[in-house]
Write a structure and sequence with these properties.
Chain lengths: ~180, ~200
């Protein structure tokens, strides 16, 4: 689907990809202990999130914003649900970070959905309705365009904070050390 | 709405045996909120219910490989529930956007109206200002926005009625009990115990 605005003029940074443990590419094993299962979930969703960075930056497909937001929210839900497996302060820190990150993309996503809907309503709309649809479309496109630098800033910050590396480091080592391929019971 | 904490999970114990604890809390979170469903205007509570449904669905997805095949059909029904709640929430959010747009459109009209006061007598300038304002009335977004507001509230009402029927259907088929059975079944499957070296908890 084409984008709703235009692509960014800002130069895309070189996004880093942390070293994920090989286990993340495997099928989850029902024999794993809960801790390992949860590490797998967190790392898998982080991988999904990171895979969308370029799509979001290029602003060529609205799906990228949706997917990155969904991944961030799944991560947050997983942290909330399995919080007892890690130190509370660590969980709180990551949960907050991810919530903020997801919120930034939430505004853009809402606008994307609205623009798609309004656009779809234009065809065959009555004159009176068309005026309102055009008015709203113009306003939402303007807002969405203004939102793009915010998304880019969120992605830049993620990189500057070395968040992916720190996240992978923590959740590859706790509660189990699965960095070297990690066996299972 | 804050997620209810699940405090007594054990990282070293098997996944299956801890499923009931996780799902009892997340399912109760949702079903406790369902008492608000009979009140159409409880916008916040219906939104909370949507969040609780999403949280529960994510949990099912986290552990999907552990569930039997028949569970997929239940997950599909669950998705439908989320769709209803999601669309109702969209309507509640969109009316705010529409109101904001209406405010802006009215400000534009108000500016044009003030222009009428700038002229003295029945001047050509006044005629021109009046024509611009009349055009804005006719071609501008105000009446369309008002119509959309009405349509959106109507749409919400329809969705709400559909949600009630759908929920009633779920209750009649014992959906909550079905999900609880799915969880119990997944939990009772045997766990393999000899598939290699187990990683040990760092603090063990």
């Amino acid at each position: 689907m084409p984008d709703n605005t235009t692509s960014s003029a800002a130069e895309m940074p070189q996004f880093s990809m942390p070293d994920f443990p090989p286990l993340v590419s495997a099928q989850p094993d029902p024999a794993w202990p809960l801790g390992q299962w949860c590490q797998f979930i967190l790392l898998r969703y982080m991988q999904d999130l990171l895979a969308q960075r370029e799509v979001v930056w290029r602003n060529e497909q609205v799906e990228g914003v949706h997917q990155i937001r969904v991944s961030a929210r799944r991560l947050r839900t997983a942290l909330q649900t399995f919080h007892a497996l890690w130190e509370p302060a660590q969980v709180r820190k990551h949960s907050r970070y991810l919530a903020e990150f997801a919120d930034t993309f939430g505004v853009a996503r809402d606008l994307d959905v609205m623009i798609i809907y309004l656009d779809s309503q234009l065809h065959g709309a009555h004159r009176e309705r068309r005026a309102a649809l055009n008015w709203m479309l113009e306003s939402k496109r303007r807002l969405r365009l203004a939102q793009q630098p915010e998304l880019e800033e969120a992605l830049r910050r993620l990189e500057a904070d070395e968040y992916p590396r720190r996240f992978v480091e923590l959740f590859s080592s706790k509660p189990f050390d699965i960095r070297s391929g990690g066996g299972q019971p | 709405m804050k997620a209810r904490p699940i405090d007594s999970l054990d990282s070293g114990q098997g996944v299956r045996s801890q499923l009931p604890e996780i799902f009892v809390i997340r399912m109760n979170e949702l079903w406790d909120l369902s008492r608000h469903m009979q009140f159409e205007d409880r916008v916040t509570e219906l939104h909370d219910m949507r969040i609780a449904a999403k949280r529960l669905r994510y949990c099912f997805e986290f552990f999907e490989p552990l569930f039997a095949d028949g569970f997929k059909a239940h997950l599909k029904q669950f998705k439908q529930l989320q769709d209803f709640l999601g669309e109702i929430h969209d309507c509640d959010v969109w009316v705010d956007y529409l109101r904001d747009e209406l405010k802006l459109a009215m400000q534009e009209l108000s500016t044009l109206r003030r222009e009428l006061d700038q002229h003295f007598g029945a001047s050509q300038g006044l005629a021109e200002s009046a024509r611009r304002m009349e055009e804005q009335f006719r071609e501008g977004p105000v009446s369309g926005l008002l119509r959309m507001l009405t349509e959106l509230t109507q749409r919400r009402r329809e969705l709400y009625q559909q949600l009630l029927i759908f929920w009633q259907g779920l209750e009649e088929q014992g959906f909550q009990q079905q999900l609880a059975r799915d969880v119990a079944e997944a939990a009772s499957q045997s766990e393999r115990t000899d598939s290699g070296d187990a990683p040990r908890p760092e603090d063990a």
